[in-house]
């Protein structure tokens, strides 16, 4: 019975859907996490009768055929790069992007990677680094004796030393934009890598047209909506149960046939 295999593809698809929802809920408090959504497409069709072909010679073509769909498959797990809420932290090294753009950091082997999680800190050399110790790119070094660090909305970084009256500029933050943010490859640890699908990064300054502004002492929260996730979880669970019901009904129908042959 084809219905057994078709329903099984439906159960597999809903299992994937539930796993994506579970990952969203697990990251509800992850800084700048972007929720994901599973997308599905129908499988190929078995054609029993072709539409547009005359039934007999001289007759009109039949208006529609008989095409049996053979189930569903996962097509994509799409990241939804929607702005998350900004949460005040009071930490001068916490930076949130309000709008489009990505911080550039130097990951393992000095590979340029991208993040919106601006929970920076200083390393032993005074350089701004991520919570995993990756250097911000371009590098910014906070001089010794600094008593206050200020980052304005256009990404200029100032340091006030205890021996000076006026703060001095020590760096400029850059942001990178992509034509297709959904094409970025998630690496974990709030990091992403450019791909052929994302396109090459276009680097600009915060506050310029098309680029977000920097908010110091703020972090961007996850954009996961708990009410929406629970609603979609219930919907996925119901769809999984309906597919299981189809398998149960098909099994009972097969049992009826086998008992009738005895």
Automatic annotation (TrEMBL):
Every Flagellar hook protein FlgE/F/G-like D1 domain range: 96-159
Residues forming coiled coils: none
Flagellar basal-body/hook protein C-terminal domain mapped to chain residues: 216-258
PROSITE patterns in UniProt: FLAGELLA_BB_ROD
A Pfam cross-reference name: Flg_bbr_C
Gene Ontology annotations for the cellular component aspect, listed alphabetically: bacterial-type flagellum basal body, distal rod
GO biological process, one term: bacterial-type flagellum-dependent swarming motility
Key words, A-Z: Bacterial flagellum, Cell projection, Cilium, Flagellum
Subcellular location: Bacterial flagellum basal body
Primary location recorded for the protein, binned into one broad class: other
Domain Flagellar basal body rod protein N-terminal: 5-34
Family: Belongs to the flagella basal body rod proteins family.
Record's subunit section: The basal body constitutes a major portion of the flagellar organelle and consists of four rings (L,P,S, and M) mounted on a central rod. The rod consists of about 26 subunits of FlgG in the distal portion, and FlgB, FlgC and FlgF are thought to build up the proximal portion of the rod with about 6 subunits each.
Name this polypeptide is given: Flagellar basal-body rod protein FlgG
UniProt organism field: Bradyrhizobium arachidis
Taxonomic lineage of the native organism: Bacteria, Pseudomonadati, Pseudomonadota, Alphaproteobacteria, Hyphomicrobiales
């Amino acid at each position: 019975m084809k219905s057994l295999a078709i329903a099984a593809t439906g159960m597999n698809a809903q299992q994937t859907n539930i796993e994506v929802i579970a990952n969203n809920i697990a990251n509800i408090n992850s800084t700048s996490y972007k929720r994901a959504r599973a997308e599905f497409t129908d499988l190929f069709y078995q054609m029993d009768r072709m539409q547009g072909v005359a039934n007999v010679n001289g007759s009109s073509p039949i208006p529609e055929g008989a095409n049996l769909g053979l189930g569903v498959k996962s097509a994509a797990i799409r990241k939804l790069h929607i702005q998350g809420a900004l949460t005040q932290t009071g930490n001068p090294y916490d930076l949130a992007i309000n709008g489009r753009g990505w911080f550039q950091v130097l990951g393992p082997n000095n590979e340029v990677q991208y993040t919106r999680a601006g929970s920076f800190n200083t390393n032993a050399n005074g350089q701004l680094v991520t919570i995993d110790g990756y250097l911000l790119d371009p590098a910014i070094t906070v001089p010794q004796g600094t008593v206050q660090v200020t980052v304005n909305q256009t990404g200029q970084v100032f340091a006030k030393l205890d021996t000076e009256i006026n703060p001095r500029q020590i760096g400029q933050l850059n942001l990178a934009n992509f034509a297709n943010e959904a094409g970025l490859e998630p690496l974990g640890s709030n990091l992403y890598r450019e791909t052929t699908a994302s396109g090459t990064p276009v680097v600009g300054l915060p506050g310029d047209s098309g680029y977000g502004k920097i908010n110091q002492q703020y972090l961007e929260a996850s954009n996961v909506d708990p009410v929406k996730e629970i609603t979609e979880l219930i919907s996925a669970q119901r769809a999984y149960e309906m597919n299981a019901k189809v398998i149960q009904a098909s099994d009972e129908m097969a049992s009826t046939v086998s008992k009738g042959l005895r």
